[in-house]
Amino acid sequence: MKLKTIFSAALFAVFSFTAVSSYAQKYDTPISAQEWNKGVIGWNLGNQFECSAPGQDGESMEIGNPEGAIKAETAWGNPVVTKKLIKAVKAAGFNAVRIPVRWQCHITNDKAMSIDKAWIERVKEVVNWCLAEDMKVIINTHHEKWLEGRPYFKNKEENCQKLALLWMNIATAFADYDYRVAFAGTNEVHVRDNWGKPEAENLEVQNAYNQTFIDIVRAMGGKNAQRHLITQTYVCNPDFGIDGGYIVPQDAEGNGNTYMSVEFHYYTPWDYAGHCDFNYWGEPYKQYGASPSDENTMTDFFDKVVATWSNKGLGIVIGEWGVTDHYKSSEIDRIHENMTYYCKFLTSEAGKRGFSTFVWDNNSFGNGMEKFGIFDRAKSACPVKAEWIVKGIRY
Description:
By secondary structure, the protein is an alpha/beta fold. The protein has helices spanning 3-9, 21-24, 33-37, 83-91, 117-132, 145-148, 153-173, 200-219, 270-273, 295-308, 332-352, 387-393, and strands at residues 41-44, 96-99, 107-109, 114-115, 136-140, 181-184, 229-232, 260-266, 315-321, 356-359.
C-alpha cells in the first residue's frame, strides 16, 4: 500500500481540531512505551463510545453516518458520560482511562474515512476531562466490524487502506495532544463467532493492520512521530501472539521499539473470570473448589511475556481484564473477598513487570456472565458499586 495514494484520498477529510496547550506544555517531552505503562492502573469506559448507532445491528459492517448516530454512546443502555464519572474514576485511585471508540457509524465520507466533526468533538471532550484529572488516555478503534470481522487476504488491501485513512484522520484530530494520549490500532480482530486458533492468513492480516497503523501515524509527524502506539495480538489473545504469531512492526527510523507496546486482553482463567464455572481462584481458596489455573499459572505466563516482548524494549498493555460478578448467596462475602484477592494479585504482579492494566467496566451489575460493572453510572455521583474490585486494585 502506498502512502501517496492514502494522502491523495485524504484531501477530502479536513478536521478543525482544538489544541490542548494548557496540558501539552507540561507533558511535551516524549516518553518510552515502557515508561508510559509503568505504574498505570487503568479503567475502561466500556459500552459507551464503542456502541453501534441507535437501532443499528452491532455486528453491521456498514460504514456511514446514519441519522441519530451522534447518540450512539447511550445506544446500549448506559447514560451519557459525564465529567462526574471521570472525576469518580480518578478519586477511586485510577490514573488512566482506555476509551474504546467505534468510528464506522460516524463516517461522513467512506472514500476518505472522514469522521463526523460532532463525534470527534464529543470524544475530545471526554479525553479532555481525563487529562484535566491528570490521567493518561488510550484511544482505539473498537468494533470496526468491516475491519475486525474480515481478517482475510481478499480484504487485506482494502482494509489496510481504510484503516490508514481512518488513523490519519484520528491522528490529525489529536495531533496537538500531549504524550499522555496513546493510540491503539485495532481491537479484537477475529472471524465472527470464532474465538479459537486462527489460520496463518488471519495472523498475517492482523500483522498487516499493525504495520499499517504504525506507518500512517508516524507519517503524520509532530508529536505523532514518537507518540506511544499500541499494537495487538490476534483477537487480543496473548496465546495467539506469544508463540510467534505476532510480528513486531517496523517503527520509524530511529525509534526502534522504544515507543511501541503490545496489547492483549486477560480474562484468565475464563472458567473463573468470565464463564463462572468456578467461584474461586488461587491457592488460599483451593479448599472451596477453585479453578485449576492459579498464581503460578499467571506469574509463569507474565514472565514469558517479559522474555518475549519486554526484553525487546516493547511496552506491555493489558488493555482489558476483569472478573464478572458471580456468587452463591450463602457465600457472597467470601466470593467477593476472593475477587479482591485475584484483582490484587493480577495488578500487583503485572505492575512489578511494568505492564499497564485496564480493568473492564460495562456498567452491568448482577450475578453471572458479563457483569463487569464497577461505577454506577445511573447515579449522578457515579459511586463505586463493586467495591470488592476497586479494593483489590488499590494495592
